[in-house]
Design brief:
Distance between the termini of chain B: 40 Å
Number of strands of chain A: 11
Structural class of chain B: mainly beta
Largest sheet of chain A: 7 strands, mixed
Shape of chain A: globular
Structural class of chain A: mainly beta
Strand content of chain B: over 45%
Radius of gyration of chain B: 14 Å
Distance between the termini of chain A: 36 Å
Shape of chain B: globular
Radius of gyration of chain A: 13 Å
Mean pLDDT of chain A: 97
Number of helices of chain A: 0
Number of helices of chain B: 0
Number of strands of chain B: 11
Oligomer: heterodimer
Low-confidence stretches of chain B: none
Helix content of chain A: under 10%
Order of helices and strands of chain A: EEEEEEEEEEE
Largest interface: A-B, 26 and 23 residues
Mean pLDDT of chain B: 96
Helix content of chain B: under 10%
Chain lengths: ~110, ~120
């Protein structure tokens, strides 16, 4: 199975900061990667698919990039509602796999 | 509004069984692949199972194959997950998900999630 490694596992940031989260795949997955946001006690929410396509209704401060094995999720200006945990997921190979998550906390 | 509502979770002893249900609304249920993802307490997300819109071609994670069975009833807009031979490590919130695939890829990402139903396996 394709393993996804996210870094960092957690970070502290302030409102207005630019935040970047990395997801590295154990093999080439082209651009078959999605990003999700999960607030405590809530289900995950799709943010990005195909590595860089913004899901409808998701604010434009979220962006994704990368191809092959290295991917990033960037939040251009962190807002209070963005403090959450973020997961990447690959859909290039079966079984579908998720990264371990990155928790974004308030500094 | 697209909505997925799960039910059927609960407390069960090791070796026991449950049937999880997910009622879908706001979209053409029969036209979309559907799946289940679970999350153990304080842990990350784990793919469990998926099924095509027609009800064929079920997929399972190795950890649940031969113990879990996914199915769907188009007439009721409902997705099911029969969970048998439950183990302590199956304890998790089980999310129903609507699956999407983008060309040229065969497999899925999850574009809609339910709120989840909790399965607790304990003696």
């Amino acid at each position: 199975a394709t393993q996804l490694t996210q870094s960092p596992s957690s970070l502290s940031a302030s409102v207005g900061d630019r935040v970047t989260i990395t997801c590295r795949a154990s093999q080439d997955i082209n651009n078959a990667l999605a990003w999700y946001q999960q607030n405590p006690g809530k289900p995950p929410k799709l943010l990005i698919y195909d590595a860089s396509s913004l899901e409808s209704g998701v604010p434009s401060r979220f962006s994704g990039s990368g191809s092959g094995t290295d991917f990033t999720l960037t939040i251009s200006s962190l807002q209070p509602e963005d403090f959450a945990t973020y997961f990447c997921q690959q859909f290039y190979t079966y079984a579908l796999t998720f990264g371990g998550g990155t928790k974004v906390e308030i500094k | 509004e697209v909505q997925l509502v799960e039910s059927g979770g609960g407390l069960v002893q090791p070796g026991g069984s449950l049937r999880l249900s997910c009622t879908a609304s706001g979209f053409s249920f029969s036209s979309h692949d559907m799946g289940w993802v679970r999350q153990a307490p304080g842990k990350g997300l784990e793919w469990v199972s998926g099924i095509s819109g027609s009800g064929g071609s079920p997929y399972y994670a190795d950890s649940v194959r031969r113990r879990f069975t996914i199915s769907r009833d188009t007439s009721k807009n409902t997705l099911y997950l029969e969970v048998n031979s439950l183990r302590v490590e199956d304890t998790a919130v089980y999310y129903c998900t609507k699956l999407s695939a983008s060309s040229p890829y065969y497999y899925w990402y999850m574009d809609v999630w339910g709120k989840g139903t909790t399965v607790t396996v304990s003696s």
